[in-house]
Design a protein that fits this description.
Elements (H helix, E strand, L loop, with lengths): L9 E2 L5 H9 L5 H13 L13 H10 E2 L4 E7 L5 E6 L5 E9 L2 E5 L3 E3 L8 H5 L1 E4 L2 H14 L5 E5 L9 H12 L11 E5 L5 H8 L4 E5 L5 H7 L8 H10 L8 E7 L7 H10 L6 E6 L13 H13 L4 E3 L42
Parallel strand pairs: 1-2, 6-9, 9-10, 10-11, 11-12, 12-13, 13-14
Antiparallel strand pairs: 3-4, 4-5, 5-6, 7-8
Helix pairs in contact: 1-2, 5-6, 10-11
Length: 369
């Protein structure tokens, strides 16, 4: 479903090609005009009809009456010395979300939010501590990428839906945003450059797999034992890991390009070799690899991150048991931009200079191939 702007206009960056064709056909515009408009919006990253020289003034006037090209405002930003940038974006209703742009292996990785707040209540996540405000529309999800690319242009970039919110708790708008991100008429990102993160909501995960978009899937595991996982991530009581893994075993090869099992590590909680063995056993027969992520501090968190030595030993044990695993060290910790640290208005940012003190460490929790 297209969610229209508050003024009743249709948001171009939230519309599928055929939907835009049908709307503009009612104005007497051709499909070629639609192609040109989407090229300007997605390829040239324009947010105004001004400058679209291959579209007549008459057509632009007609389209401006029914179509919304506005991008949301950047309410504040923070920058780290390594190039990580955090943006606090303000939508028309006053909702605030954060999105992140990171430099990684010669290209940008854009981390997008799918909700303002989050319902999942993970005990180590600043977003979860905020509570839930609302779902974002597909246009608001895609807009975040355009906001960051206009500020910091890049032709080669990855997209990870790992920001604020649980993407599969907003399934319809997520699917629409993903279609726009990967389609040649949209952002034209190869599916292999797009990653969706989830704690494993069913049946929404099955429904996403059925679309066969071929993007990467990052499943937040964090513990293989159900009691421990549910303590850390209370919402997972509704979706036991065994059921999620059984679904993954049934998915056809074209459902997702690759599978990443994210394992956030807490000192003395889930980082012992026995936990590594439990994880290897639970993943037996499943495709994919493990990302080991020492937890990032948040103001209210009771946990501490696992040491480098503990992470290395955990990884080596997984290797010994036949499961590939990679440590991921987070960028943006000092500007509250790392995994689990996004909190919208809850954390201060510099609105005067757009800068924050400190640099960031090194991580992107997604596939960048």
């Amino acid at each position: 479903m297209i969610v229209q702007a508050p003024d009743g206009k249709f948001p171009v960056r939230g519309m599928l090609r055929q939907e835009l064709v049908e709307v503009l056909a009612g104005l007497g515009e051709t499909e070629d005009r639609v192609r040109r408009l989407q090229t300007h919006v997605f390829k040239h990253r324009m947010d105004s009809f001004i400058g679209m020289e291959d579209i007549s003034a008459r057509s632009k006037d007609r389209m401006a009456r029914v179509l919304d090209l506005d991008l949301p405002a950047v309410d504040a930003r923070a920058m780290a010395e390594d190039g990580t940038r955090k943006y606090r974006v303000k939508f028309r209703d006053g909702s605030l979300i954060e999105c992140i742009s990171m430099a990684y292996n010669g290209r940008r990785t854009l981390c997008l939010s799918t909700q303002a707040g989050c319902r999942m209540g993970c005990t180590f996540c600043a977003t979860g501590a905020m509570g839930f405000a609302r779902n974002l529309t597909a246009a608001e999800i895609v807009d975040q990428a355009l906001v960051m690319l206009r500020d910091q242009p890049a032709d080669r970039f990855n997209v990870v839906l790992m920001g604020m919110g649980e993407p599969l708790n907003n399934p319809e708008q997520l699917a629409r945003a993903l279609t726009i991100l990967v389609s040649p008429w949209g952002m034209d990102r190869g599916p292999r450059t797009v990653t969706v993160s989830t704690i494993g909501l069913l049946p929404a995960l099955d429904e996403l797999a059925a679309l066969r978009l071929g993007v990467n899937l990052s499943l937040s595991v964090t513990a293989a034992r159900e009691d421990l996982r549910q303590m850390l991530m209370p919402a997972t009581r509704a979706w036991p890991l065994a059921q999620v893994f059984e679904s993954i075993r049934r998915y056809p090869p074209e459902a997702f390009r690759s599978y990443i099992y994210s394992y956030v590590m807490f000192a003395g909680v889930n980082d012992q070799l026995t936990h590594a063995r439990e994880l290897a056993a639970a993943l037996d027969g499943l495709p994919g690899y493990v990302n080991l992520i020492p937890m990032n501090p948040t103001p209210a968190s009771q946990y501490l991150p696992s040491s480098d030595e503990t992470v290395s030993a955990f990884r080596n044990e997984l290797f010994r048991l036949g499961r590939a695993a990679h440590p991921r060290y987070s960028k943006g910790r000092t500007i509250w931009a790392a995994c689990g640290q996004l909190a919208g208005a809850a954390l201060p940012m510099d609105t005067t200079t757009g800068a924050a003190d400190g640099d960031a460490e090194a991580e992107v929790g997604a596939s960048d191939s």
